[in-house]
Amino acid sequence: MISADRFIARKDDDFDGWLNARRYGVTATQVSNASTPAGFEKTAAEFLVEWSEPDNAYMKFGRAWESHIADFVQVEFGVDPNEWLIAGENRRHLATPDGLSKNHEWIGEYKTTGKDWLTVEKLPLRYRRQVQWQLHVTGAVKCVVAWLLREEGDGEFVPAWFEPKVGIVERDEELISDLIATADRLWRFVDGEGK
């Protein structure tokens, strides 16, 4: 179980507080992006400037349909929606999984996409990294990955399916170890302010 003091900030209650709390560690998106040499440089540079959450039609569609995906996963797998930023045993390791089971053994990760991955084994590498980081931070053993295909209809995005597709991802300790090394290197860089 994740101890209460590791639940840092809720995205839906205090978005600015949640965004600010993310500055005190490395998140799933950051460690995934920093896992290549070019990605590391870009992620490190972005860490040192003012943060903002960009918005576009893809993100709006994702926000509009994420609750539908979360409801489906909650009914089918017992993984509740989550808005908490969670710190790992190492408090610099942070994640906000989309779902978390009551016993904290399962998490959920929900995506809307313009390309059907067919199976969870075809999940893009950047998303596999994010999932493994979230499993590391939470200590969970499995992740329900659910995705909903979007398509254009009458000039706007609409769901291509009634229900999301789902797959189960288990912990990959080798990939987690690589991500920990990347995150720790990124944090050393950021903590030294790029020096």
Structure characterization notes:
With about 200 residues, the chain is α+β, with helices and mostly antiparallel strands. It contains 6 helices and 9 strands; from the N terminus they run βααααβββββαβββα. It has helices at about 15-20, 30-35, 35-45, 55-75, 125-140, 175-190, and strands at about 5-10, 80, 85, 95, 100, 105-115, 140-155, 155-160, 165-170. The strands form 2 sheets. Strands 2, 5, 6, 7, 8 and 9 form a 6-stranded mixed beta sheet that branches.
Task: Break the fold down into its secondary structure elements and pairings.
Layout lengths: L6 E4 L4 H7 L6 H6 L3 H11 L9 H21 L1 E3 L2 E4 L6 E2 L3 E3 L4 E8 L11 H14 L3 E12 L2 E4 L5 E6 L2 H19 L4
Parallel strand pairs: 6-7
Antiparallel strand pairs: 1-3, 2-5, 3-4, 5-6, 7-8, 7-9
Task: Considering the chains and any ligands shown, give keywords for the structure.
three-stranded antiparallel sheet, alpha+beta, 195 residues, 40% helix, six-stranded mixed sheet
> Stretches where pLDDT falls below 50 for ≥5 residues?
none
The chain-level structural class is alpha+beta
Question: How big is the Rg?
Answer: 16 Å
| Count of β-strands | 9
Biggest β-sheet, characterized?
6 strands, mixed
Helical residue percent band: 40-55%
Mean pLDDT: 91
The proportion of residues in beta strands is 15-25%
In whole angstroms, how far apart are the ends?
37 Å
Number of helices: 6
Coarse shape: globular
Taken in chain order, the helices and strands follow as EHHHHEEEEEHEEEH
